[in-house]
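Writing this down once: the sequence line spells out the residues, with the fold written below as integer tokens. I am pasting one below:
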Amino acid sequence: MGKEINLNSGIEIGIYTFGELLCDPYTGQLISAKQRLNEIIEAAKLADDAGLDVFGIGEHHRLDFAVSSPHIILAAIAQNTSQIKLISATTVLSTVDPVRLFEDFATLDIVSNGRSEIVAGRGAFLESFPLFGYNLDDYDRLFSENIELLLKLNENERITWKGHFRSELKGVDIAPRPIQQRIPIWIGVGGSQESAERTGRLGEGLMLAVLGGDPIQFKPLVEAYRYAGLKAGHNSKKLKVAIGAHGYISKTSQKAKEEFYAYYTNYFKSFMKNGGQLKISQTDFEQMAGPNNSLFVGSPQEIIEKILRQHELFGHQRFLAQIDIGGLPFKKVAKNIELLATKVAPVVRRETKKGC
């Protein structure tokens, strides 16, 4: 088994990034991919030094993103950190060879001394399908076959396997083996109940993106996941839930909203609506950041209250915030890491500690 989440210490708190490259909406400055990657590595080091639990990096294959190979950046981070868990967020499993993926993260596990994890998903963008020679008509079949193979690779040093989309494996060694007996694997899910149920049947962790609206709308997905997992015979302790969200923290609620509005709308316009020109008004933004919605923007106390409200809904074991979006300058990212680690995480861990 991989390293278990210690429920006696409360839920894990961490951050993740997609490494997008966007102009700062105030200055118009666009940093280079090199600077963006350097800042990602530095952010991970700050998060580790501050005591956060998890750092994740997503995968994209576009010029407006700096990261196409998360495991390489995570390996660089491993050499600059000592405790923080290192995860993909997410790996586009439909268009990657599961053998290569497992070996990459097993190697990361070794160089990080047992800190690697995989979040496998189908991705919000589709550019990897033509790039790597896959047919979009096989979208679901590719994911189903690849997750099946990945889980087998995680359990066995030698494997015999036959599928449809890759060459047959006949008693081959899968090397290297990770330090952990089993690399923790999570499956990334958006709003699909079918995906949540499949994740439960597989008995893997559920990584749920809760990016907008009242979080209560996602509760049926978590319930479906746990029900399917228990029905399939999995121990309830194995059925872990992680929540991912957009966030920004400042000294006061109003200051946070004033500082983040332009960056969030910049990100939203560029990616959330597939490049559309939808404009979010200040009033809309205030509502999206309200106490009953899923955008984590506010004072440390407001962020604490939102995480705890979601914990009442989902009973999740991990919360991850994406805090570097929309061209946000690194100085503000660093300040958010500090506030999340020193003002938010200790309270959330205490309040969610098992037995409280």
